[in-house]
Amino acid sequence: MSIETQIIEIAAAAKAASGIMAAVPRKQKDTALMIMADLLETRAEQIKSENQKDVAAARENGLSSAMIDRLTITDKTIVAMAEGLKFVAGLDDPVGTLSDSSIRPNGLEIARMRIPLGVIGIIYESRPNVTVDAAGLCLKAGNAVILRGGSEALYSNLALAQVIAQGLADAGLPDAAAQVIPVRDREAVNILLKQEALVDLIIPRGGEGLIRHVVAHSSIPVLKHYKGVCHGYVDDTADLDMAVEISVNAKAQRPGVCNAMETLLVHEKIADDFLPKLHRAMTQAGVTLKGCEACCRMLENIQPATDEDWAAEYLDLILAVRVVPDMDGAMGHIAAYGSNHTEAIITTDYDRARRFVREVDASLVIVNASTRFNDGGELGLGAEIGISTSKLHAYGPMGIRELTTTKFVAWGAGQIRT
Amino acid sequence: MSIETQIIEIAAAAKAASGIMAAVPRKQKDTALMIMADLLETRAEQIKSENQKDVAAARENGLSSAMIDRLTITDKTIVAMAEGLKFVAGLDDPVGTLSDSSIRPNGLEIARMRIPLGVIGIIYESRPNVTVDAAGLCLKAGNAVILRGGSEALYSNLALAQVIAQGLADAGLPDAAAQVIPVRDREAVNILLKQEALVDLIIPRGGEGLIRHVVAHSSIPVLKHYKGVCHGYVDDTADLDMAVEISVNAKAQRPGVCNAMETLLVHEKIADDFLPKLHRAMTQAGVTLKGCEACCRMLENIQPATDEDWAAEYLDLILAVRVVPDMDGAMGHIAAYGSNHTEAIITTDYDRARRFVREVDASLVIVNASTRFNDGGELGLGAEIGISTSKLHAYGPMGIRELTTTKFVAWGAGQIRT
């Protein structure tokens, strides 16, 4: 069987399964997730031994230790996957809920009903836990899911796929509702991306290269996020101690993630006062500053920032700092260099807080708190499947609700149109 | 200047204008729309004379009288466009409104704020009124819009574009917020469809050929609707007089539109009773029936339907009729031949009404009323810019709200993540 035939068969089976999943009651979906959670733990040894095949091959092929680390399934990974499934089982099911109800002058009762999207394709890199995490959320939202992880994780992903399929089958659900593509060839991805009649949405998870490849080749809608170049802006009315504390948290609490702050913009009126405090606190947190000309005049021993620094997603203990004449200067900088991810203002001024929130174009705009809060869990969505920085359908963290859509429903008593 | 340079300049100017439009207060947008409405009427003669150039060329080129009819701007068209703009000015502005507010355990206050999508490209055929109708809705929602109508309507569209630009300028808004592409070459469309860094959404309006071309060539998300193969299902528990009245309305009230019914499915238990009544009423309304084998046995003088009839969007006074064993048979037929547009059930049974509404996959599912209600105005959205039959972002009629999205906003008091 050619790869193309194989992918089309998988997608067609997913499409058929999605029709069944859409009408399944919550309890059946939750039961499937709970069975999968149990199976992960009872089959832990088998899963780890399949994973060791991938890890051994990765070592042979000279993959970096960071990549091998991401690839490795430990007992802790298994517990985390199982807990994640149980958590998703406990979340409310949005499917079938009504909103925006109205009654028309002719008596027709209108509402929007939440429904699954249909078939979702997830394309990701070497972390095998994505297989379970993404499947759990997609299935809970009533979708079918096609999973395509990195080829270096194929044994691991197939072992996890067996657990998922068993959970579905034991709960009386079609096992084609969650399928791992059992093909290493990269061509499989490109073929999947052309099945717009069978697949409703593609979510790529991974580095910018993967995402650009998916966007360039997909004829299916893609929900994506390229990078997080997140800013803080310290207004001249800010509480400076709060500004230091938030800045250190935004930069250093977990520097390797997309909602970490990369550039701090400082109002010139308080730069004299604020920058030495910031410098001390950042140095203590192990953060190196790279500053604009004004910063370099005010602080000793900091590197000058170039235009490249303003655009950089360091994902590291480095912070670019720029003095700006006012909030408009900060907003102009953000419009030029931001990535529509997360933007924070520290201020005590009512009008500026309002204007910043309304006018800055980012998936989360936040006042007097850390950029690190742009996360599905922190914003109250429960679990998340990624963060969208493009605007159509979802902008920001995507939870269960973002894996659904709404249709219109109407109840009549014989109404006709005149 | 090459066409490519020209299109990129237009798109870049639209992008810049969209940043301004996003923050404009409602009053200024409404003022612009009201000025445009006035200008349409004061410049009516000039607009009609530009339109006559297009009409004369269309005649010379031997375009069909239906096409020339769609192309022609009359006094009535002008009044309708002006009234449309005034109506949109009166609609609520969704931009900046908050929803889904919650307070997190750490005190962070979260909400979603509605914001414009950014730059919207509208690609349409020969009706010049789309220029004004689409621009009005996109601008009211705070977007910039790029309009690309049929090349046979270029003089008309440029005259209307002047009115729109003047209205924007007189209200103190950037005239680049609404631009008509002044190029006849079809290459202009293909270039526009590749500007994914500058354009956020493409909405094609027109025949299936246009839409398939746009989908195949766009690297920008597309909201589309191919066709409306809408069904009615008459349950054995239906009020048969109501079923006849709704069926005649759904088929014959305006047969040439996408929400007209194309196939009627009839429960076999009541077919004997119902079909002769239906046949009489449809004949009186000028509708020809094409029936399944069972229909042809029960009714005299009707044509047999083939598999092609079940898939047909007649847009004409023709109705395909099929007897089905039960509601599952009807739902199976709809799943196989429907186009995710509008599906109606006529029933008095509680469980079947519920199941049909929940399980049928269409942008509107309606009980005991005509399919003709799938329309933005009828469903209470105010004006509409089209009907989406794909699920991402919008499913069903798209009003102002569907031309916006939401971002997350959060108000804190110094919260950091631990």
Automatic annotation (TrEMBL), chains A, B:
GO terms for molecular function: glutamate-5-semialdehyde dehydrogenase activity; NADP binding. It comes from the Bacteria. It holds the Pfam family Aldedh. This is Gamma-glutamyl phosphate reductase. Catalyzes the NADPH-dependent reduction of L-glutamate 5-phosphate into L-glutamate 5-semialdehyde and phosphate. The product spontaneously undergoes cyclization to form 1-pyrroline-5-carboxylate. InterPro entries: Ald_DH/histidinol_DH, Ald_DH_C, Ald_DH_N, Aldehyde_DH_dom, G-glutamylP_reductase_CS, Glu-5-SA_DH, GPR_dom. Belongs to the gamma-glutamyl phosphate reductase family. GO terms for biological process: L-proline biosynthetic process. Residues 5-285 form the Aldehyde dehydrogenase domain. Its main location: cytoplasm. HAMAP family: ProA.
